[in-house]
Inverse folding.
């Protein structure tokens, strides 16, 4: 996801050189200290919230995971009301492109979803993923209670120690998820020939699938 200029550049498959969204000034975020809001189960299904770059990409990754019933694209982590794609893309709303993952906790745990999160991105990239640059593409992982926060922090610290890297993901208490525009939902599935989907989203999905085959939904 990107401005028209990015899409045109990505047509040339020069993915790694895409340099749009130069909204660096809003990359300095104050850590949220308000208590998290816990989303109750609904018909036995739980919800989790993640941001790690283009939500088209993240949606496709989580929808391939066994136990996940649906993924919704939207915005979270910011300070403005009623964010839109156009507003968030300025980098001035504080929001990042995020997903709401609806899952069956008897099949897949929150801990596993966190493993999927870190395992499906470049965890060291600050303010973006791949060609998408700007605070609206930064990585944020949201917790709804102390147990989830512990899982996230322990995983982040373990990865940092094991790989000797700085993990860029911010850790926020969940407050609110704003559902994105209809045309952003199921984007990869509905637009398989889109140049960005072919050159960025699908390779990212395939890389994740090859890394975690045991977590994928059965194709039979």
């Amino acid at each position: 996801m990107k401005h028209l200029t990015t899409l045109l550049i990505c047509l040339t498959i020069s993915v790694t050189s895409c340099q749009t969204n130069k909204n660096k000034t809003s990359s300095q975020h104050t850590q949220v200290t308000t208590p998290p809001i816990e989303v109750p189960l609904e018909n036995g299904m739980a919800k989790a919230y993640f941001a790690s770059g283009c939500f088209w990409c993240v949606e496709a990754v989580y929808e391939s995971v066994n136990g996940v019933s649906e993924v919704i694209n939207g915005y979270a982590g910011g300070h403005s009301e009623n964010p839109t794609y156009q507003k968030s893309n300025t980098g001035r709303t504080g929001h990042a492109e995020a997903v709401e993952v609806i899952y069956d906790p008897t099949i897949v745990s929150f801990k596993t979803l966190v493993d999927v999160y870190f395992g499906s991105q470049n965890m060291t990239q600050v303010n973006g993923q791949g060609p998408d640059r700007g605070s609206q593409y930064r990585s944020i992982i949201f917790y709804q209670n102390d147990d989830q926060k512990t899982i996230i922090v322990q995983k982040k610290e373990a990865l940092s120690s094991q790989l000797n890297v700085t993990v860029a993901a911010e850790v926020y208490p969940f407050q609110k998820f704003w559902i994105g525009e209809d045309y952003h939902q199921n984007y990869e599935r509905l637009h398989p020939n889109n140049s960005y989907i072919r050159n960025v989203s699908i390779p990212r999905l395939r890389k994740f699938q090859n890394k975690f085959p045991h977590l994928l939904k059965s194709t039979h």
